[in-house]
């Protein structure tokens, strides 16, 4: 008899360890977010009405853009802890009365069909099943001082992954029984009750994304998937270039804001906002890449709302427009043109700030400076000019 299987995808976290204002589940991997990769993988195995995404309502816009075009039931608000979020998801499925449930972390977009199948198959025999990988490194147990006390045999050690599968009533009862407690994963609840949970073979591609460089590792995995294994309707990418140019004159002051960094100087830059010439030209480049006009159309100088405003707001607006179209920023290159202030000592801080605003790795951002050999208004130290070039990937069918 065919079993009724449901899926709970946990995507309510803030991703604080990821070090980015945008939660990692909404970062793009190829042309899709991590969350969408997960949803589409499970949609091959279960009806969409049995998939529950657990999310943070504060991320509603990010969620809506991520699942656009998918037929899903309303997402379920998460709790303060992961365990509470899972319990919320399980309770939302009670009326569906599934036989089994798979619980998966949205930070694992590399889940494959064969891993899902192995977990489901194991539930015919066991109350719970989880995919794991063997521990290959030698494991040392140490004291707080770092002194090694023993070597732990690795033959019986496994790295746990998700989806973790369970008989629905068993895991729901366990979560309700231990509500208010916190366990490292869902299998630990059954372990606490003395119920058997079996390990099945996991996959390296299914490792969790925790740091920004993990995105690159996962992107490499996506690129290695043979064309025959990719969905026939997979969204491919096209690459767009955008450029920007801006100028601001000097005015009395004691510092300039350049690429989001305060740079001491004998003058400030004059402008309606904070006059950050670097971020203004970056905004124009981003808007240009998607054919969305220029900064003046979106933030007119006549609007007093933007008087003295921090220019990162303008960049974030352009970034959000790109993400709404399912796009991602590949790289950005900014050139500041001036005699003074000296830019070199501040370029690393500027790169880091721009990378933070764009939500990309710092090695995808370049900031450099040049002069005009004392020619023109920059040579006369009347102001600063800047130009930027960006590359943006947008999805195409």
From TrEMBL:
Segments forming domain 2-C-methyl-D-erythritol 2,4-cyclodiphosphate synthase: 239-392
Gene3D superfamilies: 2-C-methyl-D-erythritol 2,4-cyclodiphosphate synthase (3.30.1330.50), Spore Coat Polysaccharide Biosynthesis Protein SpsA, Chain A (3.90.550.10)
Site residues by UniProt (Positions MEP for the nucleophilic attack): 154, 208
Pfam families: IspD, YgbB
Superkingdom of origin: Bacteria
Cofactor(s) in the UniProt record: a divalent metal cation
Residues involved in a divalent metal cation binding: 246, 248, 280
Positions of the UniProt region annotated as 2-C-methyl-D-erythritol 4-phosphate cytidylyltransferase: 1-234
Chain positions covered by the region annotation 2-C-methyl-D-erythritol 2,4-cyclodiphosphate synthase: 240-397
Pathway info: Isoprenoid biosynthesis; isopentenyl diphosphate biosynthesis via DXP pathway; isopentenyl diphosphate from 1-deoxy-D-xylulose 5-phosphate: step 4/6; Isoprenoid biosynthesis; isopentenyl diphosphate biosynthesis via DXP pathway; isopentenyl diphosphate from 1-deoxy-D-xylulose 5-phosphate: step 2/6
Record field: catalytic activity: 4-CDP-2-C-methyl-D-erythritol 2-phosphate = 2-C-methyl-D-erythritol 2,4-cyclic diphosphate + CMP; 2-C-methyl-D-erythritol 4-phosphate + CTP + H(+) = 4-CDP-2-C-methyl-D-erythritol + diphosphate
EC number: 2.7.7.60, 4.6.1.12
Role, per record: Bifunctional enzyme that catalyzes the formation of 4-diphosphocytidyl-2-C-methyl-D-erythritol from CTP and 2-C-methyl-D-erythritol 4-phosphate (MEP) (IspD), and catalyzes the conversion of 4-diphosphocytidyl-2-C-methyl-D-erythritol 2-phosphate (CDP-ME2P) to 2-C-methyl-D-erythritol 2,4-cyclodiphosphate (ME-CPP) with a corresponding release of cytidine 5-monophosphate (CMP) (IspF).
Stored HAMAP family: IspD, IspDF, IspF
Protein name: Bifunctional enzyme IspD/IspF
Organism, as annotated: Thalassospira permensis NBRC 106175
Organism ancestry: Bacteria, Pseudomonadati, Pseudomonadota, Alphaproteobacteria, Rhodospirillales
Gene: ispDF
């Amino acid at each position: 008899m065919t079993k009724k299987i449901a899926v709970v995808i946990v995507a309510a976290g803030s991703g604080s360890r990821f070090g980015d204002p945008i939660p990692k589940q909404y970062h793009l991997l190829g042309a899709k977010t991590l969350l969408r990769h997960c949803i589409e993988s499970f949609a091959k195995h279960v009806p969409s009405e049995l998939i529950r995404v657990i999310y943070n309502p504060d991320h509603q816009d990010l969620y809506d853009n991520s699942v656009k075009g998918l037929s899903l039931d309303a997402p379920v608000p998460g709790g303060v802890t992961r365990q509470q979020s899972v319990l919320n998801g399980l309770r939302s499925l009670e009326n569906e009365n599934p036989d089994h449930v798979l619980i998966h972390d949205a930070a694992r977009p590399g889940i494959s069909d064969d891993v899902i199948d192995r977990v489901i198959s194991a539930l015919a025999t066991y109350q719970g099943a989880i995919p794991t990988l063997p521990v290959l490194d030698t494991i040392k147990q140490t004291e707080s001082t770092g002194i090694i006390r023993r070597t732990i045999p690795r033959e019986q050690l496994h790295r746990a992954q998700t989806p973790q599968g369970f008989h629905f009533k068993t895991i729901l009862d366990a979560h309700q029984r231990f509500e208010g407690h916190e366990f490292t994963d869902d299998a630990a609840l059954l372990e606490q009750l003395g119920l058997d949970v079996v390990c099945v073979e996991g996959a390296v591609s299914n490792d969790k994304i925790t740091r920004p460089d993990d995105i690159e590792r996962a992107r490499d995995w996506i690129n290695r998937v043979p064309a025959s294994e990719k969905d026939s309707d997979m969204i491919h990418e096209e690459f767009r270039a955008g450029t920007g140019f801006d100028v601001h004159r000097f005015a009395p002051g004691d510092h300039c804001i350049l690429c989001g960094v305060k740079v001491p100087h004998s003058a400030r830059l004059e402008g309606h906002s904070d006059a950050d010439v670097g971020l203004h030209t970056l905004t124009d480049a981003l808007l240009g890449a998607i054919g969305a006009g220029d900064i003046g159309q979106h933030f007119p100088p006549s609007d007093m709302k933007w008087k003295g405003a921090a220019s990162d707001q303008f960049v974030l607006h352009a970034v959000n427009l790109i993400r709404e179209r399912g796009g991602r920023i590949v790289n950005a290159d900014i050139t500041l043109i001036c005699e003074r202030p000296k830019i070199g000592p501040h370029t690393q801080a500027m790169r880091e700030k721009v990378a933070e605003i764009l939500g990309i790795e710092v090695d995808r951002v370049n900031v450099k400076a040049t002069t005009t050999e004392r020619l023109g208004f920059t040579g006369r130290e009347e102001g600063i000019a800047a130009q930027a070039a960006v590359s943006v990937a947008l999805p195409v069918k």
